[in-house]
Amino acid sequence: MGAAEAKQAILENRTALGIEFGSTRIKAVLVDGNNMPIASGGHEWENRYENGVWTYSLEDIWSGIQDCYQQMVKDVKEKYGIELTRVGAIGISAMMHGYMPFDKAGNLLVPFRTWRNNITGEASRKLSELFQYNIPQRWSIAHLYQAILNGEPHVKDIDYIATLEAYVHWKLTGQRVLGIGDVAGMFPVDSSKKDYNETMVQQFDELVSSYGFPWKLREILPKCLVAGEDAGCLTEEGAKLLDVTGRLEAGIPMCPPEGDAGTGMVATNSVAKRTGNVSAGTSVFASIVLEKELSAPYSEIDMVATPSGHPVAMAHSNNCTTDLNAWVNIFREFTEAMGIEADMNKLFGTLYNKALEGDVDCGGLLSYCYFSGEHMTGFSEGRPLFVRSPESKFNLANFMRTHLYTCLGAMRVGLDILFKKEGVKVDRLLGHGGLFKTKGVGQQILADAVNAPVSVMETAGEGGAWGIAVLASYLVNKDGNETLEDFLDTKVFAGNQGSTLNPDPEGVEGFNMFMERYMKGLSIERAAVDSKIW
């Protein structure tokens, strides 16, 4: 679509705005009536490690989204000469899970505890045993129960528990609601009823009844909604919160807020059964839409849901590109020290492509990108490590290949359970996120890691912000009872299947050899954590 058509779509209010809070960047994407991006904005931010907790402050949240929105408005002004005052629909997305408890006055009772924390081991274990259902440490219910077990005084004052996007949506609309994709990251859901699992809700209420809290679980959790349902409208107060200039009009319909897993599924057209996607950024997770429930619970596998409520098995690793990016920055510092101005896109592209020249088994090198704890392999803390033997083939290509391989190592542990133990089938696997920005590199390594074809679409770089914009578009543009799957197939992805790379047999063998070394070397990572020298 040309600039004139995009401008007309804005003037005629045939747009949808998606805003997603990623781990290191808040991004806004405005789409036209054909769901194509026509403007965007961004804001860099970073979590803090304070008093043993990974967190973001409320000030960070609001200053970040306000700046992100203004950057998008500026983009609209520069491209189309328009002062943006209204859009057709809005959607908010963010990193899943975590813990934001509020009292009746709307005060946050403890600092936001993000998905990155591995501090709820006891609660996770006890709830998994009670429910006979895997409750990962990241889930909101694990954080709540751990706070109860810890005797934290704030628990009695809880009036509402939200994830990040549920909180932002609440402040923008006044509605305490959440899309089922992230509801399933707070507490187990019943996919047949598209709601919290009522049996488990009652089990939890009974479990904590002796504490005498003045609330029941359902009373303090957001209402569960599925894609396309009414989630309220932007209020006058919400409009002023989002747009500090006061130009944005109230009354804009908003779709159910969703987690980044759900928006990733939408952004890669992976909401139908036997489809899957891999989101690779600060964390990495593979989400596979199941034909049926798994035969047993696994501590390595999260059970979540698509935005329309289909069961999804997720193999989630807390760590992916943080350590890799740190190494690339070392090369940036070197080039600048040599008097060469570093083009980061060229630097990433050069180093990533160099990795493809390396030995398929990385020449005997080993790396762990555990910047934080890694539940998949049993670590509550992380220590990024690079290890080699005197016999290893230590060169730049193998070095970079090792750091790309290890980004997928912990996730591969979970995928082996799905593919080998459970016989899960997937017809289409799509990649999105920062790992895939350099064309063909991360895509090929993922194909080799999972031994399956991997596709990347042109829109993959837009990521979850585009995905939540599409969900906002679905809210106002669906035809009657049109399903999300049909909407995506016919109105969003028609004719766009992306580029596909097949696994290379030698690459598959090489990645398997690396994984053998990776699993045996976990004792080295354990020793680094236990040494307590950092």
Automatic annotation (TrEMBL):
Keywords: Kinase, Transferase
Highest taxon, organism lineage: Bacteria
Origin organism lineage: Bacteria, Bacillati, Bacillota, Clostridia, Lachnospirales
Listed name of the protein: FGGY-family carbohydrate kinase
Pfam families on file: FGGY_C, FGGY_N
Cross-referenced InterPro entries: ATPase_NBD (IPR043129), FGGY_C (IPR018485), FGGY_Carb_Kinase (IPR050406), FGGY_N (IPR018484)
Source species of the chain: Blautia segnis
Family membership noted in the UniProt record: Belongs to the FGGY kinase family.
Domain Carbohydrate kinase FGGY C-terminal residue range list: 277-474
Any single biological process term in GO: carbohydrate metabolic process
PANTHER family, A to Z: SUGAR KINASE, XYLULOSE KINASE
Segments forming domain Carbohydrate kinase FGGY N-terminal: 16-242
